Amino acid sequence: MKIGELAAASETAVETIRYYEREGLLAEPARTGSNYRSYGPEHLARLRFIRYCRGLDMSLDEVRVLLRFKDSPHENCGDVNSVLDEHIGHVSRRIKELRALEKELKELRSLCGETREAQECGILEGLAKASSAPKQQRAAGHLKGLHRPG
Predict the structure, then answer these.
(1) pTM value?
(2) CA pair distance 138, 37, nearest whole angstrom
(3) Are the CB atoms for 21 and 28 separated by under 8 Å?
(4) Is the pLDDT of residue 49 over 90?
């Protein structure tokens, strides 16, 4: 199949397929006499595997490790377990960060309980105040200082 057909079958953008090829995740396909890429079912299966892993928010490096073991089916899978354990830890940390973000956004939302003129909007005021605070008072990726006293 041509790259457009592979893209459609895998629901992947053509540029993403080319990127995965450049990154060495997807083997370069054979070329036809007219120099078109010619992909086989093994490319589709591998691309689906990569996309599923990426959908699980795995990094390209994590996917590389998994593919290395997938390509060497007789090796011990201890490193596969380690990759997944590390990824689970990463996901757990992100969930904690997202919960903190949700709490902060809800607190920000509570600053403006009714419709009023924008110049009196507690949310805009809170955002302006927090965005002008010194960097050390801001959480990584989140703005601190929006919380009401007490």
Answers:
(1) 0.73
(2) 49
(3) yes
(4) yes
Q: pLDDT by residue (tens digit) across 1-38?
A: 999 999 999 999 999 999 999 999 999 898 888 888 89
**Given the structure tokens 């380690």, which residue do they identify?**
82
DSSP-assigned letter for residue 72: -
Phi/psi of residue 66, nearest 5 degrees? -65, -40
pLDDT at 139 (0 to 100)? 54
Domain topology for 3-72: Multidrug-efflux Transporter Regulator; Chain: A; Domain 2 (1.10.1660)
Q: For the chain, how many residues are written?
A: 150
- Which 3 state secondary structure label does DSSP give 148? coil
The amino acid occupying position 134 is P
Q: How far apart (Å, rounded) are the C-alpha atoms in residues 147 and 25?
A: 45
| pLDDT at residue 133 in the model | 81
* Block residue for tokens 């005021």: 125
CB-count burial class (<10 Å; 0-12, 13-18, 19+) for 122:
middle
Main-chain phi, psi angles of 130, to 5 degrees: -70, -35
